[in-house]
Amino acid sequence: MRSLETVTMTFATAALLAGCAGNAANPTASSPHARSMMLGTPIVEADISAWNIDVRGPDGQGLPPGSGNARAGKALFDAKCASCHGAAAAGGPMFGTMVGGIGSFKTDKRLLTPGSMYPYAPALFDYIRRAMPLTAPQSLSNDETYALTAYLLHLNGLSGEDAEMNATSLAAIRMPNRDGFIVDDRPDTNAVRCMQDCRPLRTSVPAP
Amino acid sequence: MTHDPSRRALLAKTAAVAVSGVAAVGAARAEPLPVPDSNKSLGRPLPPEEYGMPSKYESHVKRRRTDVLVNKQNYSDWSFTPLHQQLGTVTPTGLIYERHHNGVPDINPDQHRFAIHGMVRQPLVFSMSDLMKYPSVSRFHFMECSGNGLTDWLKPAARTVQQTHGLLSCAQWTGIPVSTLLDEAGVSPSATWALAEGGDGSAHARSIPMKKLMEDALIVYAANGEMLRPENGYPLRLFIPGWEGNVSIKWLRRLKLGDQPWHLRSETARYTDPMPDGKWRQFSFEMEAKSVITSPSGSMKIRPGPIEIVGFAWSGKGRVRAVDVTLDGGRTWREAQLEGPVMDKCLTRFRLRWNWTGEPTTIASRCVDSTGYVQPTVADIQKVRAITGFVQHHNGVFPWSINEAGEVKNAIA
Fold first, then answer.
1. CATH code where residue B105 lies
2. Which of A1, A111, B22, B291 sits most deeply, having the most CB atoms within 10 A of its CB?
3. Matching InterPro entries, A to Z (chain B) (predicted)?
4. DSSP H/E element including B292
């Protein structure tokens, strides 16, 4: 305890001196070392496991043990999800359809569903686990989440009715929109600052 | 008293005059001034303790939900800041726009914990009282939702500037640089991204590049000098200056460091931009330079005579360098006056005096930021992106038309 305090203080003092010069040059720059207090309590990953619910899309890292298929998923969906999402996820009182839209992005009417939009199937597991059902999030077991994921994939024609979804099989599914994304490459416009004789703005002059 | 029609009429008249800026110079002589009741009576006594509220005559100044794209539920929903009623650059805390994905949680700060883990030397957990012992920093920054302007790309749908631009607010945010806490946990040299996750019912999460987190991101517990309001993330949120509001995770419970982004629903199926050829642009975090005239704006009415044009400009890349205003539908532009202080990634007010002759016309503003970037028109944006589906990041020049009756309307096209 004592040695830790000494270490912290020496560290803080040195950082404070360094921080002064930095602040003089740029008063808004943060000088993290000068602010260090070391007040966090060390914790081991195992004790964060109940919070560690994220699943990484591309490789499915974080998918838990367990499994489920679309048949089991349908029964669960009818009981826990259809009231908002409609039968067969075709759209209900709280949300539009979660089925279809694959291939619609090259048309003028893009339909966004997990089937058309998610580039990686594990993201569907991740979202259901963290956020659904809306009224009782994080209440589903791993098996239930796999089964519901399997059901939504099946409704979108992306897996068979009896296909068992688990950490390996889910990550192996190739989603139609896998290569549908580009990373931010803006600025993509290069407007000029015209002051005189400019092209008039496109406007819709509304009806009176 | 509350429903006194003559007072209402008077207020309406005052509002119209304020908007049109018509001064009664040389007009008919004003009535003699009676001594107001407030001079002749005892005021309200001071209660032993109180949280001060706006005057009852300001009760119309409110956040409002969308009445264009009406949601089927109000848990994953949003509300807009009344920008036309915001009189300075700081948004009053109770008017900061909202976007929640599963309602507003009620978190007890004594129980709240914030964890840093993943690719760090030592995972750490902090209580609120730990965090509040750190030396704080306070910064003025705007915050804007990537979906601001969502309903008004190619034809007018919303009527007021609250609905067209009100997913935008500005506050003084107080907290700790994220880098301070990350340094204490010891960032692995190979960590390039972090997942930030909320303690709400949606456990809303986003992947954020480490570079930005170390540069200027804050772990925030206060806005405008008081603890965050529940709807703004009480007791703790992330704040990422200049980037879409969606990444400034509210009710922050953890940061997990990794070496690649997660590609969650909120960074693929949502908050992405439709592009030509059926593609989508993702991780488009930065809110590019933008501006809008807030007075006169949609649903207001002006009269011929001098008009003080007022609006806001901002840029996620830096400071506002200049704002130009057109009074003739874009044929000519003149530089507006900026009201100081002009701060980095902060709302900046501009103004321009105009003498409206009564001729129908279209007015608009255009922002130039400190990087030299010029706010594009929707036509410019349409050349490079697809405007169909769920379109985000609308920073197009926004025209208001004025007809011969002086009625101001949304003229986006």
1. 3.90.420.10
2. B291
3. Ig_E-set, MoCF_OxRdtse_dimer, Mopterin_OxRdtase_euk, OxRdtase_Mopterin-bd_dom, OxRdtase_Mopterin-bd_sf, Sulfite_DH_SoxC, TAT_signal
4. strand B290-295
